[in-house]
């Protein structure tokens, strides 16, 4: 049992220390905006809101574009659910119209 003193564990319990030992060695964890399941960053596709472009919601292939990102599983089920619900608007915290959304049949190979 790990004993701690001070502000983290004044009672000497191990609970405070164990809460800091989560995902050690794992990569970043993101949540799919459609199905709300957590997954590794490499398992999800990132979308970014770019109001200066049309459509305004673009797929961030390299996951490096500036701005707030929304993460979605790259399968058809999650993509369709994200496109048909208010998931993108909720994630970007702004009003998203149907013309702002990407078309599912266009698959960019690089950021542009």
TrEMBL record:
Domain YlxR: 30-98
Pfam families assigned: YlxR
InterPro entries linked to this entry: YlxR, YlxR-like_sf, YlxR_dom
PANTHER family from the UniProt entry: BLL0784 PROTEIN, YLXR DOMAIN-CONTAINING PROTEIN
Name the record gives this protein: YlxR domain-containing protein
Organism annotation: Brevibacterium iodinum ATCC 49514
């Amino acid at each position: 049992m790990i004993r701690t003193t001070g502000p983290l564990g004044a009672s000497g319990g191990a609970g405070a220390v164990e809460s800091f030992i989560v995902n050690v060695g794992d990569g970043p964890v993101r949540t799919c905006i459609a199905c709300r399941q957590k997954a590794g960053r490499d398992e999800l596709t990132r979308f970014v809101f770019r109001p200066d472009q049309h459509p305004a919601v673009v797929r961030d292939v390299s996951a490096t574009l500036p701005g707030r990102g929304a993460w979605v599983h790259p399968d058809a089920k999650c993509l369709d659910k994200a496109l048909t619900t208010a998931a993108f608007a909720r994630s970007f915290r702004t009003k998203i119209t149907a013309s702002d959304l990407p078309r599912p049949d266009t698959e960019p190979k690089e950021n542009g």
